[in-house]
Amino acid sequence: RYLVVNVPSQQIEAVNNGRVFSRHNAIVGRPERPTPVVMTALSDVNFNPYWNAPASIVENDIIPKIQSGTRLLEDMNMRVFQGFGGPEIDPSDVDWGSAVADDYHFRQEPGPASAMATAKINFPSPFGIYLHDTPEKHLFKSAQRLYSSGCVRVEKVDLLLEWILNGQEGIGSSEIGAMAETLERRDVKLEVPPQLRVTYLTAWPVGNTVAFRSDVYGLDGTG
Question: Is-catalytic flag, 24?
Fold first, then answer.
């Protein structure tokens, strides 16, 4: 059992014994914030997780937008702390024009508008990326889905979660649906974790022919 994320095709395949169990559209990193290749195993699943905004997103996206007012943080249901694990602060008391992103921890609470939506799927990576649900499901209909900051957003995440858990702790489709409705926080460490490969394949064999995808990050021919 293994999971393949192919960045150029912007798709995910869950594979059992050489047969594709399910295929999912994916949203991957835009060229200026690419999704890196990874070879590891999945580790755990967070249901209704907090979103701890990475320092790069805080610096490049959030702080520039709140320099003229912090209403955005209220709309996003986001709390601000003095460093990771530090005390909560009132963001309106900070001069965001001169603030340093690393001095603050921005945490979005669970809920339907959360960037993580219903679930986050973790794995070891020096790049701090993961798979996750998204509230912006309309983006999966786009032909080119290069919208993220490096993480991978998953279409039909409930089906993938059921495949990953594979009956562990009696969690099936009904339990996954119930947690999504109630916003129950739950973390599940995987007992038999599937392998994960995040790959960059612009061509691969399909029967007697070859499938091609665009070289979205301009890596072909670079060695």
Answer: no
Query: Which candidate in 24, 105, 132, 138 is catalytic?
Result: 132
Q: How confident is the model at residue 223 (pLDDT cuts 50, 70, 90)?
A: confident
Please, which residues have CB within 8 angstroms of residue 108's CB and are 6 or more apart in sequence?
A: 50, 51, 53, 76, 77, 78, 79, 114, 115, 116
- C-alpha span between 44 and 193 (Å, rounded): 8
Dump pLDDT digits (tens) for 26-47: 999 999 999 999 999 999 999 9
The answer to whether 138 is a known catalytic residue is no
Q: Is the pTM of this model over 0.70?
A: yes
**Catalytic annotation, pick one of 24, 105, 138, 151:** 151
Q: What is the pLDDT of residues 175-186, one digit of tens each?
A: 999 999 999 999
C-beta separation of 148 from 33 below 8 A: yes
- Nearest Cα neighbor of 154 from 12, 4, 39 is 12
d(CA 72, CA 68) in angstroms, rounded, equals 10
Helix (H/G/I), strand (E/B), else coil: 23: strand
